[in-house]
Amino acid sequence: MRRTALLVSTALLTALLPLAGGIATASGADGPDPAPVPVDRFEGEVPFAAQPAEGIFTWGGDSDDPPTLALTARPDAPEGAKVLTGSYDISGYGGFTHDYAATAPAHDWSAHRGVRLWWEGQNSGKKVTFEIKDGGAHGEASELWTTSFTDDFTGWKRIELPFSAFTYRTDYQPVGGIDHVLGLTQMWGYAVTLPTGVKGRFAMDGVELYGAADPALRASVTTDAAVRPVKEGGTASVRVTLATTDAKPVTSPVTVAYATGEGTARPGKDYTPAHGTLTFPAGTPSGTSRTVKVTTLKDRTAESAETIPLGLTVTGAKAPADNPKIVIDAHGLPYLDSKLPVRKRVADLLGRMSLAEKAGQMTQAERGAVSDQNDIAAYDLGSLLSGGGSTPTPNTPAAWAKMIDGFQLRAQATRFQIPLIYGVDAVHGHNNLTGATVLPHNIGIGATRDPELARRTGAVTASEVRATGIPWDFAPCLCVSRDERWGRSYESFGEDPALVKSMETVIQGLQGRADGRDLARADKVLATAKHFVADGGTAYGSSTTGTYTVDQGVSTLTRQQLEAVHLAPYQDAVDRGVGTVMPSYSSLDVIGDGRGPVKMHARADMINGVLKGRMGFDGFVISDWNAVDQLPGDYATQVRTSVNAGVDMMMVPYTYKEFSAALTAEVKAGRVSERRIDDAVSRILTQKFRLGLFEHPYADTSGAAAIGSPAHRAVAREAVAKSQVLLKNDGGLLPLRKSQKVYVAGSNADDIGNQSGGWTITWQGSSGDITKGTTILAGIREAGGKVTYSKDASAPMAGNDVGVVVVGETPYAEGVGDVGNGHELTLSATDRATVDKVCGAMKCVVLTVSGRPLLIGDRLGKIDALVASWLPGTEGAGVADVLYGKRPFTGQLPVTWPRSEAQLPINVGDKAYDPQYPYGWGLTTQVAAKDSALTTLGKAAATAERRHDDRRGRELVNQARLIVQHKVGQHITAAVSKPFAEADHALLTGRYGQALIKLLQAYRAAR
User: Fold this and answer.
1) Residue among 120, 473, 483, 814 flagged as catalytic
2) Alpha-carbon distance 239 to 255, whole Å?
3) 31-40 residue pLDDT tens
4) CATH for 37-213, options being 1.10.60.30, 2.60.120.430, 3.30.930.10, 3.30.70.100
5) Which residue of 188, 275, 590, 836 is surrounded by the most CB atoms within 10 Å?
6) Is 507 helix (H, G, I), strand (E, B) or coil?
7) Is residue 115 within 8 Å of residue 109, measured between CB atoms?
8) CATH 2.60.40.2030 intervals, the chain
9) pTM value?
């Protein structure tokens, strides 16, 4: 899924979402106000700089997003002679910050009412966000509190922003949530986020603190929950807590008047009205709580949920952001009966729902975009997701569970209390969670050729994801990658549909049995087959998305190619009971159908016709991130087209309100049928019932102790070891001996971020120590003898026996990683120099850590042993296991390794096929390959095929493959490669006799 909007910054989303703010005019304190305290006069006293020095600095989502700033002399300056001026043209987000020096003491703003500034209005009608930095070690590790004002005027105007108007940011915090209280005693500066989508300029002057402190800011009142469900006839208890910013007792009394208000529950019939006052006298300690009780009344009528608002009026302290809402649980209705068949429960619930409620179920929003959590109930949202890098603060299992439980609690305030289904891209483990087990990316799993291991990796992922309260995983990717220039190549198990199908055991690891009976377990999640269909077949240069070259482009195919290569894995996924399917961003152009390229989200023939019709898919179809926006026409047309094409739930991260309104309008206008809506909602509700969410909507954290556990990491380590493909091993250099002195070098030897790749903690991933794990260097040190490490090979090399050079790619995801979009298939100049230095000085092993094959032929003659390590994830010790012979090399190439970029695309089965290494190539250190009569093996393999003895057939073919590789060595010609690769395809399709025929051809072609 595309995650451009989720690249982390200090201004994520604030420019997109309406935020509370205001202009204060009243003093609010007895006696004269203290004199204003200047923060910035913009006369040059604060330079343009960056941390750790004090200064003003700019930032933005893209290179052209940061604004340009200058200190400009102006005769109309409100204060002094100069003002801060700037211009901007922001597509993502951008703004500027004044941070106090990280090494200097923080400032105390607590004696003042707020902060004010002069702003030269342009009457743009846009919001300008103002943020302050509270507490923490320094300005980049502080809590962020935000408000805004609207540029709806011209000329200079003084904007006053009372501290009482600032709210804690829920969409992004750079730290782990210090105390969620605006203390004002340790302030590290401020930031301004400028409007997006328009070119603009601004001028600003005279930032200062003003007014006397608002007593209400010293204390705040909170409730233990915004929604309090209670069974009919029970008593709801709402705990009201007083807190102070300095944890000291309050100096003046605080009162909280409460009264039940008008909701859907009837006073006197459904509950006993309650009202009164809670008093916290002066001297009351911070943290003191009082309780409000509301008694509900029981009757014999089956009912949907009913609400009782509890209004709170606070004097002397800051009131809660939300007045709590008591909800009398729905009861007695058939859909709530877990003993009924799911189809009957779905039919009963669907028959009670309004069109608006159905539209809500078809809507999925990004959790960070729901700035007002009341929207979950107000719009009857069916789903939330975390995009790549969209994580709670702190990023811990407990925080994930608490966050999602909070969202689920809001859904309990809806009429039928339909739980949310929360989704996340856990594409190689629970990769958004710091400390989770990060597995090899799919290309490495494909290299293992081990379906049972693939299943176990899926089980590890499911266990860790579900333990944080998430029941839905947007995985696995069933793309058949046909061009290594594609930035998503590593998301594919390989280039052969037969290999992809064999790895679909991962679906059982995620979901359990195909009939869905295991989905309610605390260690299983709903899986997603993506991206339907042919996303791996897009042509280079066909993309029109930003600077992408391949991703989201056009797949031009014959009907036979479509069926044989790209559709084949989806039938297997449907047969395995996969719960959801996600269409691709890409377009499909079927040769001869006369339609030309059509976006997959608009292809009713493929989604309704092939997937749901011919294949019999009974789950639901979830769109990709904002994919509806890529369809032609206005928004109503886009919504109508995608829903009528068969998309059941729309991932509309920031436009959930607009989508719900548009869909409802299209149904009322008759352009989307109610039957189509009912079909979509039935499919969604079916999976929610199967997941057990109606009975257990909240996180079951009983499995949280297993997250990142030794047992899970052992599975990952085994997967890493089995994914390593030994391409060359001259002189039997591998395995290494513990007695050898090893010189380790290279950019990827000691970098957990690089070896994990994209989709790790954030969407694009990043270099460095981003999560817990073992780097390849650390694994080598644990496994071997004396190790010398020098990243750039600058340390002396004398006295070492063998070099291990770990090079390759840095992280990327999706089209950002497309070749030609800032990426190449060659090693960087630094990596090339490192290889040359080490391999020129001693015998050497080169490991490529990458999401795809790299062009290394020009240095192959200098390299004694070459290993494709792919993107192993957090368990680098698995690489060391095969380097030192603890496990043998058994991995095989899941994709063809090209000689040059000019050969691309190149795949098994091509008429012209002359790669550096063929598909299926993989040397072993297990046993020496013994020459044997291939004709004899061929007869035995044919017999195994007739008897459907798969185990024996695979053993025979593998034995023959090793014999062929032993004879071929590094003299790999087209005459060898073509039959060799086709033999591996035959093996995966169960044609063992044919595989031996092909291997015999390769053997005879070898010199």
Assistant:
1) 814
2) 14
3) 678 899 999 9
4) 2.60.120.430
5) 188
6) helix
7) yes
8) 217-332
9) 0.87
